[in-house]
Amino acid sequence: MTIRIAIIGAGIMGADHARIFATELPSVRLQVLCDAATDRAKALADQLGAQDVVSNPEAAILRDDVDAVVIASPDHTHAALTLTAINAGKPVLCEKPLSPNMDECIQVMKAEEALGRQMVQLGFMRRFDPSYSDMKLALTDGTLGQALMMHNFHRNVDTPPTGFEASMAITSSACHEFDVARFVLGTEFKSITAFAPAGVAGKVGPVFMVLETVDDQIVNIEVNNNATYGYDVRGELVGEKGSVFLNTPVTSKYNLGFKGYESYPADWRKRFSEAYRLQNKDFLQFVRSGKTSAAAADAWDGYCSTAVAEAGVAALASGQKTAVSLIEKPAFYK
Ligand code: ISE
């Protein structure tokens, strides 16, 4: 069966999802691209062969010729559009975060429960990245013994010219690390402390966070959205018998001008291209079978990372170690 997809948002991520579905995966059709800037959506549709272009996201989701929805619009629109898709009975791959606000995540979980079916997959694509998969496997197969610590670096070249507020270093960037650390360690966080090191005037500054898990492991996260030199994500999981370090896929090594070096990508699309492809393939399988895979992030995972992010924003403002308090996990997600 060919799955007809609506992509909401034709910005950097909407365009990348559209490209992946149109050029890398079988039995899927770009049915409609939706963006407030219809000329941007039209240019993408012409390039990738999408059937139609519209500007109203709700109308796009509700169309009879749409089977499944990808939401890649601005963060604050994610939850409401996800609810529209759930209420229409359409599976949805929603970019992270599910919402910058915990209460909205709870509403999404309630809507799924009321329907009696999971409809939401969250775009925490790092769960599908082969290097994080190795890390998780080294824990689950016993190679590393007990997990003790996890170190994480998350560096972007710069922030988009508009729309990226300081808190988004935590809610929109660090949320990847919150989720992937929960996934790799198989645990939840109990506290977060956040520091703002010296930054450059007029730019979103770096944030350094220290988190404790309920199993007493320590996770630290550096986010620097204005690192300038390249997109650079690093991680190391330390266990009682050794450690696993993420290896960034590198295709070439340069020998030039008395130096040997590798280059960095400008953003996350190249670094995580295989993760995105595997994630979107997994989503199509979810649409076909109605069953979530073990790797995929669901609405509960979206809620948890937003709960950690909310505590992180509060911790940064207060300078205090802040508790992460989660609601009890609904039986529906167990
Ligand atoms: C962006 O939205 C992403 O999803 C990237 O993976 C992340 O590295 C970046 O910091 C976010 O702003």
Gross CATH architecture of the largest domain? 2-Layer Sandwich
CATH class of the largest domain: Alpha Beta
Q: Secondary-structure element sequence?
A: EHEHEHEHEHEHEHEEEEEEEHHHE
Q: State the helicity in percent bands.
A: 25-40%
Shape: globular
Number of domains: 2
Please state the CA-atom Rg, rounded to the nearest Å: 20 Å
Bound molecules: (2R,3S,4s,5R,6S)-2,3,4,5,6-pentahydroxycyclohexanone
Low-confidence stretches: none
CATH topology of the largest domain: Dihydrodipicolinate Reductase, domain 2
Tell me, rounded to a whole number, the average pLDDT: 97
**How many runs of DSSP E, i.e. beta strands?**
15
- By CATH, the superfamily of the largest domain comes out as Dihydrodipicolinate Reductase, domain 2
Query: Describe the biggest sheet?
Result: 7 strands, mixed
Class of secondary structure makeup: alpha/beta
Beta-strand percentage range: 15-25%
Strands in their spatial order, largest beta sheet: 12-11-7-10-9-8-15
Q: Termini separation (Å)?
A: 30 Å
The DSSP helix count reads 10
Question: What descriptors fit this protein?
Answer:
six-stranded parallel sheet, 10 helices, 2 domains, 22% strand, alpha/beta, single chain, globular, seven-stranded mixed sheet, Rossmann fold, binds (2R,3S,4s,5R,6S)-2,3,4,5,6-pentahydroxycyclohexanone, 334 residues, Dihydrodipicolinate Reductase, domain 2
